[in-house]
Design goal:
Pfam families: TPR_16
Keywords: Signal, TPR repeat
CATH architecture of one domain: Alpha Horseshoe
Protein name: Tetratricopeptide repeat protein
Strand content: under 5%
Radius of gyration: 17 Å
CATH superfamily of one domain: Tetratricopeptide repeat domain
Low-confidence stretches: 15-28, 35-44, 47-53
Number of helices: 11
CATH class of one domain: Mainly Alpha
Mean pLDDT: 82
Largest sheet: none
Shape: globular
Organism: Enterovirga rhinocerotis
Number of strands: 0
Length: about 210
């Protein structure tokens, strides 16, 4: 029996992925306050399976419930449902490749993870989760510029992806741009008001950023 891919929030808190690197960033990073238009699709994507309208509606409802959650326990349960939904592509092949990529990531084989996720983004170019997880792989490989580009792709496809916004906050923090990091964390918290990592980072950064002209 094949298990589903590891929830991305579990990767976020994994020290093996986010422990030490503080790399230099290239210029032209995406603006956390803007979601760019989608790029051209890869040459031979797998035929997309259009989700049923009730499935899309259910995801919308989950995001609505998450934003209105009354406490952290309620929010955690709803967020877990959303993550599981986002982690399904509708393609058995893409899902299997993603699972193998996550095994590579947890084994600290970022190069293999990128190779596998390259195939996933060709098969399912509209799948935000694939782009988000490849961003994690690029970060593990100490390539923040490409990680940023993949987060831009992910947030174009799913602007409510609170884990992608949190990743963006971490990347901007590593680059030294506290204002952009704070903006990204606040976007995450608008979607998931009890997201622990984002909440702690927002409290830490807000006094510094809000107290000066931007």
């Amino acid at each position: 029996m094949r298990h589903g891919p590891m929830p991305l929030s579990a990767l976020l808190i994994s020290a093996c992925l986010f422990g030490a690197p503080q790399p230099a960033f290239a210029q032209g990073r995406p603006d956390p306050g803007k979601v760019p238009p989608p790029p051209s699709a890869p040459a031979k994507p797998e035929a997309a399976t259009k989700p049923a309208s009730n499935a899309a509606s259910t995801l919308d409802e989950l995001y609505g419930r998450l934003a209105a959650a009354k406490d952290a326990d309620e929010a955690k349960g709803i967020a877990s449902l959303i993550e599981r939904r986002l982690a399904r592509s509708g393609s058995d092949t893409a899902d299997l490749l993603l699972s193998r990529a996550m095994v590579a990531l947890t084994s600290k084989d970022g190069a293999l993870a990128v190779e596998l996720l390259d195939r996933v983004t060709v098969l399912r170019p509209g799948w935000a989760e694939a782009w988000t997880r490849r961003a994690v792989a690029f970060w593990q490989l100490d390539d923040p510029s490409r990680a940023m580009m993949d987060l831009e792709e992910a947030l174009t496809r799913e602007p409510r992806h609170f884990v992608a916004w949190t990743l963006l906050g971490r990347l901007e923090t590593a680059s030294g741009d506290k204002a952009r990091a704070l903006a990204a964390y606040r976007r995450a918290l608008k979607i998931h008001p009890f997201l622990d990592d984002a909440e702690k980072a927002e409290k830490r950064l807000a006094p510094e950023v809000d107290g000066r002209d931007l």
